[in-house]
Amino acid sequence: MPKVSSKLAAAVKCSDEFNAAACMHCGICTAVCPMGYEILPRKLFRYVQVGLEDKVKENIPNIYSCLLCGMCSENCPAEVNIPENVRFLRKYINENEFNLS
Amino acid sequence: MAQKRRIGVYVCHCGGNISDYVNVEEVADAVRNDPNVVVSRTHMFTCSDAAQQEMIDEIKEKQLDGLVIASCSPKLHMFTFRGMSERANLNQYQYIHVNLREQCSWVHTNDKVGATKKGIHLLRAGIAKCELTVPLNAIRIETKPRVLVVGAGVSGMRAAISLADMGLAVFLIEREAEAGGWALQTGKMGPEAQDGTDVVAKLLTRINQHENIMLHTSAEVVSKSGSIGDFNVSVRLPGDETVSLNVGAIVVTTGFEPYTPQTDEYGWGAPGVIPLKDFRQMLAEADGPLMHNGKPVRDVAFIYCVGSRQLKSESCPEPNSYCSRYCCLATTYTATLLHDLEQKTGQPVNQYHLYRDVRTYGALEPIYEKARTGGAIFLRWDPSNPPQVTTEGDQLTVKAKDHLLGGEELEIGADLVVLATGMRPRENDTLNDILKIPESKDGFYNEIHLKLRPVETMIDGVFIAGTAQGPKTLAESVASSLAAVAKTGGLLMKGYVDLEPLIAKVDTDKCIWCGECLKACPYGAIEKVNVGEKEIAFVIESMCKGAGPCVPVCPHNAIEIEGFRDDQITAMIDASIKELETK
Ligand SMILES: Cc1cc2nc3c(=O)[nH]c(=O)nc-3n(C[C@H](O)[C@H](O)[C@H](O)COP(=O)(O)OP(=O)(O)OC[C@H]3O[C@@H](n4cnc5c(N)ncnc54)[C@H](O)[C@@H]3O)c2cc1C
Ligand code: SF4
Ligand code: SF4
Ligand code: SF4
Ligand code: SF4
Ligand code: SF4
Question: Which residue's alpha carbon is at the smallest distance from atom 2 of ligand 4?
């Protein structure tokens, strides 16, 4: 069973960059994303918010394939800054998974 | 046949509500020549001022001594026409109401001939009853300008102050050594960010300064007698001293008991699984990062609806099916308190709120919003799949399903699991035996009507307020205690109360005191008295509601309800079947 990572949860909570609290899970972003992955961005953000680090790691290829085109945030009714959130995730993975800094 | 009477009969069109389906002229004609009927006519709107004035004039002019109005439900206009009768110098209990709308025209819209026949039967029954009426007077009780308030939680304290401000003398009785109730243990409370102990301290200052309030702590009610307007209550004070208080009304604010989970229910019993109350205390006492077992607290899981909204099952045969109302507010507010502490100490704490529905209704929604945007994670659970709490060493694990991830299961490692336990009715057997306030199916004291009469009980002169009546937030508790104050003031400030005389009456010749009526009476209104050598039943006028369960059980036909006497009922039946055709 996937476990919640206290570390990821805390990192998300304390960050000014990642903010998906306003997301109401309508799925518009997923529908308009040109990459067409089911996971981007709605479900991915829920994994991040809840702190399911393993699930996030499983999706590293998706996170890096995002075009940062902003189609999603342009259409998001809750004004979630999605590309900014993706950038935060990449930074977190670079530091914690690839040991880059 | 009883003595000759002079009865006026008025049949109402109700602007068509009745006359579209019942031939009201035919109804009025049918009884016009009855022996005791002096006048029988119709009105377009009987309740209109003009029609009332015409009836008043006619009652006076023709010296009528009985009145029958066939119109809408008595629930709508009985008091209108009682008032009108008095204005026409006719005793109000000699007016009889016949329901020709709700019980006839509205239910027989497809059969005018049949409805008209039925209308005549109903009217004849009304006339027969009217023929046997006697003038009655309301029972006037003088009320004492003093109130007993039982239970000095926030609800009781607040009620005491406002009653005293009205000029009534108030005795405030608290069982514990200290007044305040649960508010003493709730730490900072939402949504106003007031400390429970401060709220209590402020109320207590006002109470101690008020010359009209007498507060007794470590005190309990031991007996009660009398009835509305004039109760005698004995109260035991510390040191086994007993005082006797004479009061006009009693306000019961005995509060609630927090639900105690069963062993293993959401990990209850394991170290680190605590009720919300204890967590609030931890927050109130924290002067740095939260610590548990010598370690800083990093992850907290909150489980909502513990002991509330339960479903019936084998492990829970008697579920608390109601919502406890305060806990969504209290728990989301606790989330914001934890955010504040986080800001202060710089030590992040992850919060997982496992809820069923967030019921931060009305103006409380911003609290939830603040909790959520502050970073608390909300995960919804379904009663068929409640969260599971397990322990390994001192590590607590909560397993849950996240419905926003399509029901994917996840595991949360938590340092503390906080249970938002609901409200239960307080165990209060002694008091319940004394006051006999009916309880609702949830076990709280029962009001007469949740919306229309929310603080009155079936016992006249006894009011309920705060969480004793049902789960409430602090603001709701205070609102209900002020409602009880308004009702109590309305009763006592006038100095007297008029009660319906339509109550039980014992025939002292026939009664042989068998006690059957006493057993049947749900209001305790019957007593045994001695009249000379003989023991008979006696009806306490101020307590009898005229409900009548005593009547059919009497083996000697010795007890009757005034206004619904056997001779009246028999006459009504005879009259209504007078014109029935036998096929
Ligand atoms: C952990 C927790 C957190 C809460 N947080 C919030 C919040 O944030 N916001 C909010 O609005 N509400 C909150 N509440 C709810 C709030 O505390 C209650 O609504 C309020 O305290 C109810 O007051 P009360 O006077 O009706 O009842 P109580 O506080 O129960 O007072 C009843 C009093 O009657 C006394 N009594 C009982 N029986 C007798 C008897 N036979 N004779 C004499 N005395 C008797 C008791 O000793 C007690 O002092 C919280 C409650 C809890 C438990
Ligand atoms: S920014 Fe990324 S997630 Fe958003 S639409 Fe473009 S590719 Fe998809
Ligand atoms: S469009 Fe915006 S609100 Fe809708 S799911 Fe995507 S991020 Fe959430
Ligand atoms: S008395 Fe009743 S039935 Fe007659 S007009 Fe008034 S409301 Fe209608
Ligand atoms: S107020 Fe909230 S936590 Fe409390 S019983 Fe109702 S839904 Fe459950
Ligand atoms: S049941 Fe009848 S006979 Fe018996 S005590 Fe009551 S009134 Fe008297």
Answer: B72
Pocket test for ligand 4, best of B101, B106, B122, B123 (most atoms within 8 A of CB): B101
CA distance A8 to chain B (A): 10
Distance in angstroms (rounded) separating the CA atoms of residues B40 and B25:
10
CB A52 to CB B410 under 8 A? yes
CATH assignment of the domain containing B365: 3.50.50.60
Which structural domain range is residue B376 located in?
260-422
- B531 and B512 fall within a common domain: yes
Give chain B positions within 8 Å (CB) of A13: 348, 350, 375
The token duo for A42 is 């709605």
Residues B11 and B36 in one domain: yes
Partner-chain contact A4 B404, CB within 8 Å = no
Beta strands in B448-547 (DSSP E): 462-464, 496-499, 504-506, 526-531, 534-539
Contacts made by residues B13-17, CB under 8 angstroms, sequence distance 24+: B13/B42, B13/B43, B13/B44, B13/B45, B14/B45, B14/B46, B14/B71, B14/B72, B14/B101, B14/B105, B15/B44, B15/B45, B17/B72, B17/B101, B17/B105, B17/B106
Pairing of strands B295-296, B291-292: antiparallel
B348/A47 touch (CB, cutoff 8 Å), yes or no: no
Q: How many CB pairs under 8 A join A and B?
A: 53
Q: In terms of pLDDT, which residue wins out, A11 or B114?
A: B114
Q: Are B389 and B282 found together in one domain? A: yes
Give chain A's domain count.
1
- ipTM score of the complex? 0.91
**Contact at CB, A9 and B402, closer than 8 angstroms:** no
User: What does the pLDDT read at residue A21?
Assistant: 82
Spans in chain B with pLDDT lower than 50? none
A1 domain-assigned: no
pLDDT tens per residue across span A29-85: 999 999 887 787 888 989 998 999 999 999 999 999 999 999 999 999 999 999 999
Please tell me which residue of chain B has the smallest CA distance to A13.
B375
Residues of A within 8 A of B377 (CB-CB) are 9, 49-51
Supply the pLDDT for residue B583. Answer: 54
Q: Specify the pLDDT at position A40.
A: 76
In a domain, B122, yes or no: yes
Could you tell me if A45 lies within 8 Å of chain B, comparing CB atoms? no
pLDDT (tens digit per residue) in B266-302? 999 999 999 999 999 999 999 999 999 899 999 999 9
